[in-house]
Amino acid sequence: MAYWLVKSEPSVWSWDQQVAKGAKGEAWTGVRNFTARQNLVNMKKGDKAFFYHSNEGKEIVGIAEVIKEAYPDPTDKTEKFVCVDIKADKPLKTPVTMAAIKAEKKLADMALVKYSRLSVQPVTAEEWKLVCKMGGV
Q1: pTM of the full structure
Q2: Which of 5, 21, 70, 100 would be a feasible disulfide site paired with 82, CB 3.0-4.6 Å?
Q3: Nearest Cα to 119, choosing from 14, 4, 1?
Q4: What's the total number of domains in the chain?
């Protein structure tokens, strides 16, 4: 299993909306960056992803699971981009803020810190464990 981080502005798509989709999940559409696209292509069914509220909140609020691997993004007229389906797995007991992540020296190399504009990012196993611990799960 691999670990990832997906970003969404809560005013566009929030953790609560993801939870409301239940077991059928929702397509993670709208990615228009080629690095992020490649990360979506690399996701496998069963992989886990942190759900990060960007711009508004700037915090990891939950854990999602990939339930369908990459397929053509129906919102992309150019037919160059893909999406995956994810479902909410569980919320973090305590959201982990960007400030808390930046304050943790062991997370200094985390993609979230280094590539703040990348909407779909890999997370190492060590980073995953530490953020989960910080979030109380």
Answers
A1: 0.95
A2: 70
A3: 4
A4: 1
